[in-house]
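Researcher: Quick sanity check before group meeting.
Model: Go ahead. Protein one:
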Amino acid sequence: MPAKYSAVLLGAAALSLPTAFAQNDANHSEPARCLSMASVRSTRIVDDGTVLFYHGRGRVYVNRLERQCVGLARENKFTYRVQTGARHSRLCATDTITVIERTGRGLNCDLGMFEPISREQADILLGGHAVTSVPVEVPPEVPPEQRAPEARAFEEAPAPTVAPP
């Protein structure tokens, strides 16, 4: 059974700098289909279509999702399931991430290839505004009938309405 992890992230709108990735960085290799999650130290959301994975030994991989993942940057958190194999757990381009919204689970979004970039290129994408996060295990979902009464009351409360001026 795959392990379940969540990354809680604080993202920022990224600058569109395609030329930042035009340089051939000799310290990095070709795009990877999968990453070993044992080596991933943290992740950062750049925008609704881009997530950075900070790997051991100073390597950074950018994952450009197959499509825009509406709400990813706004909610700043997602979950993913990793593939478990004979050697280690890994996250692959064939996997998905799921946005965690305040109201529960959001969209499932397909990952792309993991492209190696330099830390300088990652910093350019982020503009110095994102917060690093680390994977944590997600607690099991608690059925509504087992939640504390005050939590149920909060969830069942109607949304406030504002009268027009």
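Researcher: Fine. The other one?
Model: Protein two, sequence then structure:
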Amino acid sequence: MRIFKLLITGSLVLFLVVHTSFTLIHVLPENMAPLSIKEKTKNYMAPLFDQGWALFAPVPEVNKKVYVSYSADGKNWSEWKAPFNRYLYAHQSFRASVNAKIVLLQSGALHYLYNENEVQLKQRKNIVGDTSLGYFRVLKYAVQQELQNKGAQVKKMKLLVIYVKASCSEKQTYSIYYPEFEAGR
């Protein structure tokens, strides 16, 4: 009888260790666990334990990035830069910082910019943006402010906004390109 109890206890402990390990690996971000191992945990987790997190916040439908190239003289252009990346990385490092407000502002503007252009993006995936739309002006102002904060002299800018669908089943990329336009209000 004692051997039977030890066998049952050992089996339960082994199950808990394996289950906890699979759960931790399954929920780790992509850059913290190899994809090959994460794929193996899907077979175990998906049927019974996988869940959406919409209770806490809507699942992001797209990942958004902004790139800017600017010119001080209208002739020589800078390399493409991601002006808001430092806020995003700082926010990911420490969620309770003031960077959350900047990331939320940028994310909201890009979300509504996508919604303004959704019909055209679904038809062609890569479009030239309309600089008269309201959320473009919000984004333009935010980018200009960030460049000025860094001491950049800006006369003209080009913007590229890239949206990548966050769906695990298929990767779709959309982009809105705003060709050369005057900086300023």
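Researcher: One line on it for the slide.
Model: The longest helix spans residues 2-27.
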